[in-house]
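DM from R.C. (forwarded with permission)

"hey, sorry to bug you on a friday — could you get me a structure for this? deadline for the figure draft is monday and I only need the backbone to look sensible"
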Amino acid sequence: MKLKEEFKKFVLYGIGGLVALLINLSLAYIFTEKLRLFYLLSAICSYLLSLIFNFFFQAFITFKTKRELFFKRLVGFYSFQTLGLLLYSILVFVFTEWFKIFYLLSIILSSALVYIFNFLFSRFLVFKK
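My reply, with the result:
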């Protein structure tokens, strides 16, 4: 029973993460192509903005946070996401500059790799019971 619940959380985390990724990609495209920001700055800004949606989805849908723990978990979530952002930024840069992968594809690859890291930190440290 416990494994089934954990798998459900993992899938829900992925759904929220997928929507956040779509937000991230859309904003990165707008920032880079329309506003002419450097792709890495666009990727960082869009990642940070997509975290707003991601936190609320994870807090209230995936992990069902109680309102009295909201602020504590918000701070914890953003603290760990900062580590994720560092890893994500490095990966986007490496994929784009070293491997010459298109920046939007680099964002997708980096997000996929950081997903597991973020899930584990969120599940066992930020949203633990």
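R.C.: lifesaver. Residues 2-126 form one domain.
me: no worries. The chain is about 85% helix and 0% strand.
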